[in-house]
Design brief:
This protein has about 290 residues and is of the alpha+beta class. It has 5 helices and 14 strands. Helix 3 (about 160-180) packs across helix 4.
């Protein structure tokens, strides 16, 4: 998670001593803090914003007698500005640190989205079971350490919104039936995938892959909450980190029905972002579960 500090303009903080200095900067002017008492210990959480919607979170033990904070975990975050998904999910605590991962189903892509939970204190207080049937809204956001800007495909916008919505609705219905074991739905989806594969394979002889595929959302590497995406840019703004003075780009991107903000250091982004263009990059996905 430390490598994504560069996503919010804090790439110069790498080793333990530098992390401690960054923690001191957070403690000097905290914008938010919370604590949980458990088994005689007090777990404290402190955050400071370094720009619109982005900042650094600290987690560690608080000694109320000596009034000393023992820093253990430090990581960057970006606040999601809208509800991204609303579905049943599972939440699990990581074994090696005070952190949680959430997983929910994204119906349109047939993908289980795994994300790093931002509001750990609220989740701990809620004492959520590992899996629950009640749908909960999640506001997602992402940090990227490498990315580039792509031009839109010539097919973007050719299909009417009504036609697109109809196709998505039909596909969602088929996927729901397939999850329930409907053999006919499974057969139809399989045939559609085979036809799509044949069509793309034929076009690849004469076209570039990114002129065919408008958007994509795929797991990346060994970490379960990291993805590689190609998504349409809906909005793009440049900000400056208040601590380092470095520039960052914050974009709102859309991939199918997933709409969420992503932040990346200006020096790590190749190209000029603008609405209508596309962003291709690697992401660390975060989310705030509204409990």
């Amino acid at each position: 998670m430390h490598k994504y500090l560069r996503s919010i303009g804090l790439g110069e903080y790498r080793n333990r001593q530098q992390m401690e200095r960054l923690g001191e900067a957070v403690l000097e002017a905290p914008g938010w803090q919370d604590s949980i008492a458990e088994n005689g210990d007090t777990r404290a959480y402190v955050a400071r914003m370094f720009g619109p919607g982005f900042g650094v979170m600290l987690s560690g033990d608080w000694d109320p007698d000596k009034r000393v904070f023992h820093q253990e975990i430090i990581y960057p975050f970006l606040i999601g500005d809208r509800v991204t998904v609303n579905s049943c999910m599972s939440v699990q605590r990581l074994t090696d640190r005070d952190a949680y991962n959430g997983m929910c189903e994204e119906g349109d892509m047939g993908l289980s989205l795994i994300f790093s939970v931002q509001n750990v204190p609220e989740i701990r207080r809620a004492a959520l079971p590992p899996y629950f049937d009640k749908a909960l809204p999640v506001s997602m956001a992402a940090l990227s350490d490498t990315g580039k800007i792509l031009l839109p495909t010539i097919y973007t916008g050719k299909e009417t919104e009504k036609d697109a919505e109809g196709k998505e609705k039909d596909r969602r219905a088929l996927m729901e039936k397939a999850r329930g074991g409907d053999e006919r739905a499974i057969e139809i989806l399989t045939m559609e995938d085979m036809d799509l594969y044949a069509s793309i394979s034929g076009r690849l002889r004469d076209e570039d892959i990114y002129s065919i595929v408008e958007t994509s959302f795929m797991p990346c590497g060994m970490e379960s909450d990291q993805y590689t995406v190609v998504a349409e840019i809906l909005d793009a703004q440049r900000f400056v980190n208040e601590l380092s003075g470095k520039g960052v780009w914050q974009m709102t991107i859309a991939c199918k029905d997933l709409v969420f903000p992503v932040i990346i250091a200006e020096e790590d982004l190749l190209g000029e972002p603008a609405p209508g263009r596309r962003f291709k990059g690697d992401l660390w996905l975060q989310g705030r579960i509204h409990v």
